[in-house]
Structure formats: structure tokens, C-alpha cells
Predict the 3D structure of the following.
Amino acid sequence: MPALSRDDVAHLARLARLELTDAELGHYAEQLDVILGAVQRVSEVAADDVDPMSHPVAISNVFRPDQQVPGLTSDQALSGAPAVEDERFRVPRILDEE
Amino acid sequence: MTFEQAVEKFDPVLGLEVHVELNTETKMFCGCPTTFGGDPNSQVCPVCLGLPGSLPVVNAKAVESAIRIGLALNCSIAPWSRFARKNYFYPDMPKNYQISQYDEPIAVNGYLDVEVDGQTYRIGIERAHMEEDTGKSLHMGGATGRIHGADYSLVDYNRAGIPLIEIVTKPITGTGAKAPEVARAYVTALRDLLRALQVSDVRMEQGSLRCDANVSLRPSPDAQFGTRTETKNVNSLRSVERAVRYEIERQADVLDGGGVIVQETRHWHEDTGKTTSGRTKEEAEDYRYFPEPDLAPVAASAEWVDQLRTTLPEPPAQRRARLQQDWGFTDLEMRDVVNAEAVELIEETIAAGATAGGAKKWWLGELARRSNDSGVALADLGIDPDGVARIETLIAEGSLNDKMARQVIDGILAGEGTADEVVASRGLVVVSDDGALTVAVQEAISANPDVADKVRGGKVAAVGALVGAVMKATRGQADAGRVRELLLETLGVQE
């Protein structure tokens, strides 16, 4: 497997809205590489007859009935919000001015 | 370049993505209600607000609806299907990801046949997948309430988590100049199908059915696909047709002038009839989809799918053909009925005792006019099929005439009660008592000697003026048919 490059890490950091310094990019690239290498070892033992799984337990069709369950009041919902206006969450400008 | 020149010179290719909000009681992954129009942030819980530690659980009814939609669209239902996380930062999704489906959608590879001007187009369905709706944002401080130039935004998460089915077509080719109409016909047919399945309110104006239109042009039908644009915010059937038409013209102009089409999202503006460039994507979208670890896969067994197949309604096109035959309407009449969205109304009116002709007369005549004047859909006018059927019965019995029937409609729409209650409270009774009418008939004849002479001389049609005079004298409460008979009798004329 090719090593995770600094560019890859910079790309991921941008997608995750993380601001990393040059030193940090190298640091994380190294660390992530080790993690990927460890996970990669799974493919050494997983044969073709083992289906990939996305859930730790082999279950399917876990459903709930279409019935209402009491949720939060708007006061409760908004209680942790940094800013509120007209019963709505107030968020900073979404698009930069261009 | 005109549209005609554009489609002469280029071959349009369409792709339509329709999002439909399901009409389940609760959201896709939590038990919050889905009712439209609640107070902001009053229909939320830790799951749909994305609070730490909360876990989603799939709504069984939503999966059932998804499978039924897939079956109605002639899709294969995947025996194994998973949810996936679509990661992106945007305040309308509080989790910073949307739970959707990616490489394992619930339904794939189907089709829907639509008809335009007598020709059938088979629209291939690529996939139908389950996902959750986003919250609603109000953009504040800008000039137009749009995101561009806004100072900040206000978010209401009542809609976040409402079950959505996204239905994606395969590239639609071979439609040429009919492309805009085929696009509209497809969304219309899809809406009718979803309505027949009773899985959604399918109200475009409320956003429970939304369409994104992908359009590209190529020099000829055997050339490779051109670069496409995706037009969003297309919120009515008419807009689907207009937006596709506009994009074809716009792209043709760009290409004809030697320019290139930029792959981008464009926004449709109902008022100007144009699309404008949305966010240009500096780099390809990278949503880092991965299987949703908080949800177990959906395994639709053959038994389950077969059982759901038995719940499918008669396909709308087939049903319309059957009803048209039952009712004895011409193609043109039936098209008017369909366009007025009066199929169900007329069906129920007939079931309540009216004739097909009578039901059509009121729904497409007087009531359609009132619907147009007020901008309220026929079904929401405030008179139901039972009311219309009762009015028809009263007319057939001779106890109401058309003019009085319109007064009964006035009363019903004004909330004065049922047809019979309005008749009673407004004292609407046809005067067919000959004694009372004879006086009015004599007066009409002596007041209009010229007309009377014409009728005596053989111009029977002229009697209409005398009928009108009698109706006026009796304030519209006479039985016009009986008045005519009495007039002709008195004048000694036979028809």
C-alpha cells in the first residue's frame, strides 16, 4: 500500500475543517500511516469467502414502528445553542463574500 | 438562439433527480412527527439534532414505502441494502453528515413509461434510495433572502430527518425537441404514481416533491455526452418544462459561441424564467461515503417483497384508460379532467350518485372557474364530491336549476353547511307551479310583443328572450324547461 502523503492529509484536514501546520501535517501523515498499516493486516487473513461487514454484529432489519415518541421542546432543543433568533438556531454566514 | 434552433443544432440529454418526502407519521431515524408547518424546532429530538450519544433506528414504514416505490417503478429490490454516511459541512445537517445510501441502494434498474403527444417514452430508472431530509434555513441580512450576501442564517430542524426517497433516472436520450415536455411528463407521471401509492403528499409547492434537472447537449445523438449542469429549485411541473427549455437554449448559445459548459449547480428562478450559476465547485465533491456504522443493513426477503407487491395500486395510466372508458369521455375530455386534477373528484362524485357528464360539468366548469379565480386547488375549494353529487341529484329531480345550483355552491363554499342546508336556509326552490308561472309568462309576452310575434312566425329560438324575462321576474327560481314549454304552449307554437 502506498503511504499516506502529506497532500492526502492536507486534503482530509480541509474536508474536516481542521487547520494544521506544516509540522502537524507530517506528524499526522506518519501516525495515520501506522494506523492504516495495522488495519491493512486484516486483509491478510480475510479470505474471499468472508463478506465485508459494516456492523460489528451480523444482524439486519432492525426497525422501529412508525409511532411518535415525545422529543424535545423548542426551548430544550435551543438551550445549548450559542445563538438563537426567532426560535431558530442562528449560524454564521454560510458563504464567504465573493 | 431560439429553442427550435438549439434542438436543431444539438441533441439534448436529460437526467432527473426527484426527491420525495414520505408521508410517514415519524422521521426516518427517530420518533419525531413529520407534520408540515409546526413551530420552528418543535419537532426535534437528540437523534435528528445530531446530539452526541444519540443513535438512529430505521422507520419500518419508510422502508416499506421505499420498496413499494421501487416495485411500482419496475425496479429490482436489493436483497441486501445498506445506509451510508455522506459527509459534508453545512448547517442544515446538524450531524455534519446525512444518512443516505450510496453503493447499495434499496431499488435499482427500473423504468416508467410516459406519454407526450401520443408517443410513449420509456424513462429508465437508475435507482431509488432512502435518505433523510435536511433542515430549513432562512438567510438573513441579504437583499433578497438568498444565501448570497446574507449576514447570517437561521435554521429550523423540524424537517431534518424526514424520510426522503431519491429517484434518479438513467440518461434520457432521444427526446430531441420534446425534451422539456418529456421532463414534465415524467415528473407528472411520477407524482401520480406516488400519489396512487399513498406514500407521499407529493405537493411540489410545499417541497414534498422536489426535482433537480440535469441537462447537457451534444452535437449529435451518436456523440459522447456533453458537460451537464444541474438545475435546482424547480418547484412546479410547469417549471420543470421551462427550466429544461431554458437550459437547452442557454447551453446552445454558449456552445454556439465557442464557449464551454461548466459543470455546476444552477438555480431556477420562477419570476425571471432563468437559471443562474450556483456554487461553482472548485474541486470535485468529496463526500467520503462510508457504510453507516450505527445502522444494521436492510435485508428485504423475497416473501416481504412479494407481500408488498400485492399492495401496489393499479398503475395510474391504466386506471385512467379504464375510467375514461367507463365514463365515456373523449381523449380531449379526459385530458382536461387529468389536467384539472379532477380524476379522483369525479370518480367519487359518480360513486356518490352523479352521472359522469354531470360530475364533469360541475368540476370542470363552475368549480374549475372558482378554483382558477381563487388560486385554490379544486380538492381544497371546500366542496366535496358528496356535495356536488347532491346538487346534481337536486337538479335531476327538478328541484334546483343551474342558476340556483350556483347559489348552493356559493353557500357551501361560504361554510353555510351541506347542499340541503343551503337550499333550506336560502329558500332555493324551483317554482314549477304552473299557476304562478302562467302570470309571469303572460306578462313576458305582453311586454315583448315583437319577440312573441317572431316566435309565432316560426323563429322558435327567439323564445329564449322570453324565458329570460320570466326567469328574471321569478328571480331565477323558475324551472326554465317548464317556462319554455308554457311559453310555446301559450303562443301556440309546436317544436
